[in-house]
Amino acid sequence: MTNIRPCDASEAPHILSIINDAAQAYQDTIPADRWHDPYMSLDELKGQIGQGVAFWGCESQGSLAGVMGIQDRGEVTLIRHAYVKTELRRSGIGAKLLKHLETLTAKPVLIGTWRAATWAIRFYEKRGFRLTGHQEKERLLRRYWSIPERQIEESVVLSDQPAGIPSPASGP
Question: What is the model's pLDDT at position 170?
């Protein structure tokens, strides 16, 4: 049985453990200059939470098995840092988390991931998300994320809006 619930600040070490365990899948996939071990530090996690990323967790057999963040960015909602413990992958935890987080917003939902993480792209596409074009990807990443230029080069954005995300009338 699984239970989806908001995570609280006291769970940061456990959230971090899941992120760093699951992120091992990226080690030989993403460009070497983007990989570091640990993949995320406690300070980085606290920074993400401080920037408004609210983490939700899925418990399986009484233990946190997967996490996924949601971040309100004005016109859109971002799904951030979606990870499931390695030994529990392909058990439906990620799908349950995503489905739940989608119910929390009526805004367009955007998801960024590494271009080389084809398994992640397929996961989101199976759930109705579509890759944006190159120019749209760059516009969205620069507008709604705070990531280095090199990460923008190596990333993709998926959207739940088939027609894309309209450009705001003013500003980047």
Answer: 46
- Distance separating alpha carbons of residues 27 and 161, to the nearest angstrom: 31
Residue type, 137: K
The Cα–Cα gap between 20 and 48 comes to: 15
Q: Per DSSP, what are the bridge partners of residue 70?
A: 54, 79
pTM above 0.90, yes or no: yes
Nearest alpha carbon to residue 75 among 105, 104, 101:
105
Which stretches within the chain are classed as H helix? 12-22, 42-50, 93-102, 118-126, 134-144, 149-153
Q: How far apart are CA 145 and CA 142, in angstroms?
A: 6
- CATH fold for the domain made of 2-159: Aminopeptidase (3.40.630)
- Provide the b/e sequence for 77-96 (b: ≥16 CB within 10 Å): bbbbbbbbbeebbebebbbb
Terminal-to-terminal C-alpha distance of the chain:
44
Evaluated on CA atoms 68, 22, 140, 43, the torsion sign reads positive
Mean pLDDT over each residue of the chain, to the nearest integer: 93
Domain ranges across the chain: 2-159
